[in-house]
Amino acid sequence: MAVTIKRAALIVAGLGVLSFILGVIAENKKPEAGTPIPGKGVVICKYPRDPSLALGYLSVAFLMLSTIAGYWSLFYPYKGKSVPHSVLFQSASFFVFFNIALFTSGVAATLLLWPTITEHLHLIRNVHHNPTTTCPTAKTGLLGGGAFVSLDSALFWLLALMLADNARHDHFYDVEKHSKAQVLPDGC
């Protein structure tokens, strides 16, 4: 089964959509607060069981897989023909969208990891010595925002892949044109 640009695009898009869906579900399932249980000089926070932590980490994992697949798809030698990286980066639009894809991947990872790790810490460190603790959870909205930026990241990887494909076609057209121009007819 040969890897084609269409297959690579489907993999990048599929992983990006999975990251988006899991991030949105994690945002919707996240509890607003825990239940404070007062004790002698401490408050123990009891949080309801919810899948937001696992979904947050899965969303980050699919974002990373989408990013790796997007990066890999740009430089993969389709049909056994590789293109020098310098040829791809000569295209200004490819350079811009490649950097935007990298940037949005980093922003999405930050927006997904921050509330997921914070929520994880709230679950682990649930004993507080402040009697007025209200048992907070991670900031609301970050997981959902990270999910949307994750989807944007996958779309930017797809745009960069389309631009890389255009640069690849132009490069091979120029190589073919120059090789035909150098062939001399018989009898010269």
UniProtKB/TrEMBL annotation:
Coarse class of the protein's main subcellular location: membrane
Protein topology in the membrane: Multi-pass membrane protein
GO CC term (a single one): endomembrane system
Protein name: Keratin-associated protein
Record keywords, A-Z: Membrane, Signal, Transmembrane, Transmembrane helix
Membership in a protein family: Belongs to the DESIGUAL family.
Compartments, record wording: Endomembrane system
Organism per entry: Gossypium hirsutum
InterPro entries: DEAL/Modifying_wall_lignin1/2 (IPR009606), DESIGUAL (IPR052222)
Bilayer-spanning residue ranges: 54-75, 87-114, 142-164
